[in-house]
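for the writeup, i need someone to sanity check this before i put it in the appendix. the sequnce is what the collaborator sent (i think, or maybe the updated version? ugh). structure was predicted straight from it, no edits. if anything looks off just tell me and ill rerun, i have time this weekend
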Amino acid sequence: MFDKLDEIEVRFQTIETDLADPGVIADRTLYTALMREHSELSAVVEAYRRRRQMAAELEGTGELADDPDDQVREMAREEAAGLTAAIAEIDEELRRLLLPKDPLDRRNAVLEIRAGTGGEEAALFAGDLLRMYMRYCEGRRWKTETLNLSSGAMGGVKEVTVLVSATDAYGRLKREGGVHRVQRVPETEAQGRIHTSAVTVAVLPEAEELDLAIDDKDLRVDVYRSSGPGGQSVNTTDSAVRITHLPSGIVVTCQDEKSQHKNKSKAMRILRARLFELEEAKRQAEIAADRKAMVGSGDRSERIRTYNFPQGRVTDHRIGMTIHSLEQFLAGEMDEMLEAVMAHFEAEALKAEGGA
């Protein structure tokens, strides 16, 4: 591990020198790439330097082990014990930081939310989840753009697709994919009975045009008149677009914009993300079955979380964690849970690396 860390530190120092070179500064593409690499390596180098300093301090306490003064020897033993524990923590942190990074983590995320079992109550909860994620993104100052929205009869959400633009959006949100279950008393329930509904969430990395080529002959594009509640700017022109990818059977519709061109552009972004997800799933399966088990299959039928309104709690079933502040969680205060989920999967990856 330390040979690898030495190599990283040398590379880090080289990048710092290059970033001060006027020629590099003038080349915006190179400069941006080096700044990104510098940012990625900085946490590793900082931790490694802290460890090296602590190791030097620990060596210094060893020189006091034979001091004739009993108090000095006792102080040295206590300091050595503290430094040894701190170094062990940094070693664990370094092992985590050295785990292979998923290059997709730094991409924008395409967030899809669909109402599942539970009818209008599921659609209402899908609306709650949409607001939760939007508030979370607002709190992190991430840019969001609604690509497609299908509303329910009672003001909920049947289906929505949102593009989240941020450097680490996909890496931070990708574990949100799965079935989110809600337990609460619907407003329409006269007898106060608790109902259980479900909403499906999928998180995809935004695909770039270079990732995969989509042949026009593989697409069937249908245009039709928009339909929706209220009648605002709908049913007047053939602006809605439905794109069918014939080889995969994937169908994407978009009718949010008044312009057919804009709807088609948004639909293609969604289609590209879904096709890229299929390609990634195939690639992951081909790499190794054990790695697929480690990172999870992304199976959308997997129940990952329950939101219990009567008890005011939210439970993540993958890590067995319960937070008794449901209202704040739905207001976008999700970091505690997300950090715990990320730590869990990093620990699983460390185990897999250790057993490899």
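The two ends are 15 Å apart (CA to CA). Residues 28-62 form the longest helix (35 residues).
thx in advance!!
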